[in-house]
Please model this.
Amino acid sequence: AQTVTQSQPEMSVQEAETVTLSCTYDTSESNYYLFWYKQPPSRQMILVIRQEAYKQQNATENRFSVNFQKAAKSFSLKISDSQLGDTAMYFCAFMKNSGNTPLVFGKGTRLSVIA
Amino acid sequence: NAGVTQTPKFQVLKTGQSMTLQCAQDMNHEYMSWYRQDPGMGLRLIHYSVGAGITDQGEVPNGYNVSRSTTEDFPLRLLSAAPSQTSVYFCASSWAGLAVYEQYFGPGTRLTVT
Model:
């Protein structure tokens, strides 16, 4: 079974600064996807970024980027130029690349961006 | 497209009552799933379906039933509500065409069992 661990229950960052959220996972699969989801106070789950395990290049989406270390089974999220709207819960998630399969989530990191 | 819709948004039940949480999607997605979110626990999978007529259990299926008679709908039934089922429930759907594996989430249902 796959497990996802987020070791930082809460973090804070000053507006315009950079913050990194950590995620590690355990799996015996060789093909899989990793995701970061954002959940603002509205409760809506929003996909932030996705990484395919077979790709060595780290994914980026505007101010969001990941550091994917496959051998170490690590998948951290870096948020640059933090904005007040980035305040949210962030969930790391794993999915096997074998058709329609469920997401396995970490417990989340609550990020507060401070003005 | 409305995406993934869930009803109701909020519900209060008494212990022992039954109810159905509704989930519908208009994207012709094959895959649908139900998660529950509890403080400090992340989202945990309850049941999922890879197509009409096919369902399977997730991590925390006890006390819940599902069925998938159409591609669009995937209702979650609480047979006899218990306080331990107080949670926020999310429905999600996805279509595994080519490399598209993003799951789209509904807005959630906050359920309180007293």
